[in-house]
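User: I'll paste a sequence; please echo it back and then give the predicted structure.

Assistant: Echoing your sequence first, then the prediction.
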Amino acid sequence: SVNVTGPMRLCRAVLPLMIAAGRGSIVNVSSEAGLRAGAAGAAYTTSKHALIGYTKSISVFHAPQGVRANVVAPGAVATNIEAPFRSAYAGERLGPLMGIIPGVATPEHLAAAICWLLSDDSMNVTGAVLASDGGWSAI
């Protein structure tokens, strides 16, 4: 519900306003897990893939009305979500990767990517997935 239904409802709420204005920009937040299969688990990964597909559909169907839709796919961000990764199972799967990742992003790093996609500086970008993941998607 949180990963797919919430963003879908928000998009459905704002799309009529954007269409009426003849412009708008939507940025949904997925995850680097939405770019591949991986250690995040099947349900989480599937939900993030679904959000990317939904956002790309918006970009196709509503581009003629001036609405852009993109996705930011963060990797590790310094929030309290990392607590589950301290388990032995997660450590086994993610531990080797943690040594080669450049680091954990701050919320400000992620906000900068989102603000760029919302701005007119990215006016020719729609249907894109911007990996703001410090290199996670490269491995």
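The two ends are 29 Å apart (CA to CA). The longest strand covers residues 67-74.
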